Structure formats: structure tokens, C-alpha cells
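Re: the request from the purification team.
They wanted to know what the chain is likely to look like in 3D before they choose a buffer screen. I agreed to run a prediction and write the result into the notebook, where they can find it.
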Amino acid sequence: MSMTDDAQLCEMLTRYVASDCSTEEVQELSSRLERDAAACELLAEILMQGAAVREYAQAHPQPMVSAVGVPQRWQAWLWPLAAAAAVVLAAVNWMQNGRAETSVMRAAEVSGSVRWTGQGGSVVDSLTKDTALGGGTVETVSDDAAVTLAFRDGSLITLMAHSAATISDDGQKQVHLREGNLSADVKPQRSGRPMLIHTTTAVLEVLGTRFDVESGAATTRLNVDEGTVRMTRLVDGSTVDVPAEHQVVASLSRAEKLGAVQRLTPTLNWRSDLSQGAKGTDGEWLPAEAGLPARLKALPKLVTPAKREPVTLHHVSVEVPWEFLQTLQLKPDSRLRLRGRMTSIAPVEIMLNTKLLRGGFAGNYFVRPTPATLNWELDLPITEFRKWRSDAGEALPDGLQLRRVVIYTVGTDAGLEIEQVEVLHPASP
């Protein structure tokens, strides 16, 4: 039966309330209301108007005069609908609220401070593991934050620090990645309903695969580990199928060729260049002046660790550029070299935010040296870094890629400024 006009829909609802619908009609009506929010809203509006007419008739037992602005095409059906308005309206509200509250995923793993904004604007500032979630927006707030979300079919997506995404699943999973890094392990999806990843420059169609995507204001980088992902560049509609062990970058430039290339061997050396501006950094960028090079000045940031009092960090961070196709790998004999200055001597905490080479959060690793002078250079073996800020914590393993370096003082403003961040490996030229 077609449900393309109002009269048919009204007639079906009337018989449904009277328990006079066939099984097929009940299924059709349920399907219509599940997929068509406008139909739910229209139905609720008409039923409430019907209830108003019923109340008026009870108070004024005389021929009905419609005083509530009911559309002409609905008036023939108002009396039977009004009689059951409360019943059906309660059912509609249950369907709408039930759909809004039905969880589509859960927080499988949570690290650091993660904020969740659900349907209706409910906000959870400190998301915890195993929390059931409906559709909404997740933000990894703190520098050490990461969250893995598990869908009901076993598909996993992981967001790292400085990431934000809006997620829904109404039978087709969709993720709007506003910024940051997303790694995914997607189970085979239903035919015609691929998972869609929307970024500022591209749309990715995923049927079932493992991949890693990084999104910025004007660039998206995709690395595929298993299966195939189709990328469509938004600026011109160009498409490319990216197979396993391949990668691609989509920008806002029509002139750039959109093509998948074999995954490059990771580089082992990298040096920041703050002379080019503040892109990819946190902190106050200061240009070269008075004999000083361009640098980042630490800014205060209030953080609230789990079950602890809030603390102020004066921090800067530098992201390893990802717009190009090469990644930066850390080896056991790699070293981190920092050049900076302070107005007073204080311990400096340094955090390495890392990923697996094939994508996915690998953990945060820390060291806390105290510079000996106000103008200093620290040359730190990677082997000195430990997980979870503990001397007894796990050492940084081989085969991770570096995503971001965060430098800060805890609870004190020591006038921290950073001039350069560098990763060196002795075997490289």
C-alpha cells in the first residue's frame, strides 16, 4: 500500500488505534515513522489539535466548530483520532524518545578528558569507559585524550587528542570529522549502506576495512591498511579507490591530482620550523625579534584529572606535519632535542603523543627533566620516556609514530618558551 497522501495516512492511523490494521500495515506505519521525522512531527501536531477539539466538544456539546486552525484535509478524521489522541501521542513520544535514547555505540576505551554532547544537548564533560551512547558529538579535550567507540556490529573508531566528530547510526553509520585524527576498524557493512566519513575536503565510503584519516581545515590524508576506501574530493567531485597499503591526500585545490600512491617508508628525522608561523601548534606564537628566533610562549590551561583537584598547566605543543604522505617513526635509539628558555628554573614535563604505524592510538609517554639554566637545550633519549607519568611505567616500544610533542610546567608559570623541537636518529644521513 502506498502512503503518499495525507488521507491514507490518517485512515491507517485511525484503524491502527482501533487495532484494525493488518500486520503488513503496522510494519509499514512503523517503518514510515522510523525514517520520517517530519511525519512524526506532523502526526503529533494533528493529534494534539484533535485532543483540543475533543476537550472543546466535551465542554460545549453542540455541533463542532473548528477553532484551533486544523487543516481542512484533516477535519474528517479528527473525531476518531481525538478519541485516541492520548494513546497514539504517547506511542509516538515513546517511539521518538526511544529512538533518541537508543544507544548505537559505547565508549570502549577512554584516556584523558573526553567530552560527549548527545541528542537534545545533554553534555558529559568527562566520558567514562563503557558508557552507552546514542548519536552525538565527541571531543578529545585534553592533550593526552583518546577515545575508542564501539558500534553494535563490532566496528571501532578511535579519536585522538585535538579531534572532534559528530557520529550517527540510523541504519547507516556517518561520522563528520571536523578536525583531528580518526582510526577505524570497520566490519562489513550492509549493501548500499557504507559507513560515510565526512571531512572538510572529502567524503569516504567504507564497506569494511581498516584505515586512518587525518583532517584539517583544508586537507585530508587517508591511509588504508586493509580493504578499499573510496574517497570523493568535495571541491570537484573527483573520486579515487584507495586499496590496502596505499594513501592519498585531498585538498581544496582542483589543480592537484587525486591519486592513491603506495605507502611511503616512514622517516626517522624531523625538525620543527616556527619561522613559518603557528600552524599545527598550541601556545602564543612570537615572531623573530631582538635577536631571538620565532618561538612559542606557554599559555595557561586548566585541566581536571580524574578524581583530582584542577591544576593549571602552562603549555605549548607542536604537531608533526601530516599534510604530506610521510610519517615520523620513533626507534629505540631515537632522540628528542628541545631548545627553549624560561624566566625561572622549574621542572618541565614533556609528553609524546603516539600512534601505531598502521593507525590507532598507541599511548602517551612522559619524561620530566629540570633544565639547569634559563636558556637550555635538552637532548633526551626516547628510552627515558614512560607511560602514565610513572618511572615504573612501560617504556616506549619500537615501531610507533609520533603525532605531537607537548611541553609544559605544572602549577607554575616559569615563562616557558620553545624555539625548536627535533627528532634525530643516528642511522639517518
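For the purification team: Confidence is low (pLDDT under 50) at residues 46-101.
Please add any questions underneath this entry.
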